[in-house]
Write a structure and sequence with these properties.
By secondary structure, the protein is α/β, with parallel strands linked by helices. It comes from Beauveria asiatica. This is AB hydrolase-1 domain-containing protein. InterPro entries: AB_hydrolase_1, AB_hydrolase_fold, Epox_hydrolase-like, Haloalkane_dehalogenase.
Length: about 350
């Protein structure tokens, strides 16, 4: 499925058509107008481009069955096209995809929901926070939007949710992009030790307070972004700052503790996930931050056991590779889904 293409040497094109000269070429052209005019042109062009990149819509829908008020981000062409569902992880929300969405939306309809317990989605009292429940809500959301065919991008918590959807409706999934989204026991890093200890506990209030002190503080929220990222200056501080702020919303502490506890119930499903891979031979791209201490590279490489044609890419990145390597991930997705890449991809 991977095709190596070199950029054209004589004519810069986009999708087979001549591309306009880049802004810098006009700015420094010998035939360009005055410096002041050029400066105005440059700023206007940059503002126009930025405006287009900010066209992602934010939406909310009330789901009648679950009674969840679900928040999501959406972008895409006006013409009919394929759909990509982006499922976020802990402790984030659809906000983690804010930069990727408009890039993918040049070719696809992109849907990124905030799952219950995260972001700006609101749940009714006594909502049960399990990964089955999260999958139920996402399934209801997709049905409400009449989305019956899509590719899915799974990351962290999004993996057990997205793979549950695949077990329920294998005919609906056209391809899987897994970015540090685990489906093998080999993928767990040593930093899971406190959570595994919580699994073995009696789930008393003391047990819950102990894991909350470890996993629900600002430092560990920031750590998940900066650890393993070669250049932390590429990370927008509002990413982890917003994540932490939203974790302080009423009910979020208990919701996250319930999900920590329930994560152990994903592991018995790994055999079913792997059986699905073998039977379906679903096209799969595993694009992995190789410096991630939560889901380590053996988890990416393990997909090859059940999907010999899986494409495995290890990036010099941490857990939130989509924050630091947005453009590369976009290009890999385009290439994986048989679209022509705009640039030649290289890894440093």
């Amino acid at each position: 499925m991977q095709v190596s293409r070199k950029p054209r040497a004589t004519l810069r094109t986009i999708n087979g058509r001549p591309a306009p000269r880049p802004t810098w070429a006009i700015f420094f052209s010998n035939t360009a107008p005055s410096f002041a005019t050029n400066a105005t042109y440059l700023m206007t062009t940059m503002f126009s481009t930025q405006t287009k990149m900010l066209s992602t819509q934010i939406k909310r829908i009330s789901l009648p069955k679950s009674r969840v008020s679900l928040f999501w981000r959406e972008n895409g062409p006006e013409y009919p096209c394929k759909t990509i569902l982006l499922l976020h992880g802990f402790p984030s929300s659809s906000h983690q995809y804010r930069n990727l969405i408009p890039l993918l939306a040049t070719r696809y309809r992109v849907i990124a929901p905030d799952m219950p317990g995260f972001g700006f989605t609101e749940t009714p009292d006594h909502f049960t926070y399990t990964f089955n429940s999260l999958a139920d809500v996402v399934e209801e959301f997709l049905a409400t939007l009449s989305i019956d065919k899509y590719s899915v991008y799974i990351f962290d918590y999004g993996a057990p949710v997205g793979l549950r959807l695949a077990l329920r409706r294998p005919d609906a999934i056209e391809a899987i992009i897994t970015q540090n989204g685990n489906a093998y026991v080999q993928g767990f890093g040593d930093v899971w030790a406190p959570i595994k200890e919580f699994w073995a506990s009696d789930n008393t209030e003391d047990d819950r307070s102990k894991i909350a002190d470890i996993m629900l503080n600002y430092d560990i929220t920031k750590f998940q972004y900066v650890n393993g990222t070669p250049d932390v200056d590429t990370l927008a501080p509002e990413s982890y700052t917003l994540d932490y702020a939203l974790l302080q919303r009423p009910g979020r502490r208990e919701a996250q503790l319930d999900l920590f506890r329930d994560y152990q119930n994903n592991i018995p499903l790994y055999e079913k996930f792997q059986a699905y891979f073998r039977s379906s031979q679903i096209p799969l791209l595993a694009i992995w931050g190789k410096n991630d201490v939560f889901f380590i590279p053996p988890g990416a490489e393990a997909f090859k056991k059940d999907l010999p044609n899986a494409v495995i890419k290890l990036l010099d990145a941490g857990h939130f590779a989509v924050e630091s390597h947005t453009l590369l991930i976009k290009e890999e997705i385009f290439q994986f889904l048989d679209d022509e890449p705009d640039i030649e991809i290289s890894y440093m």
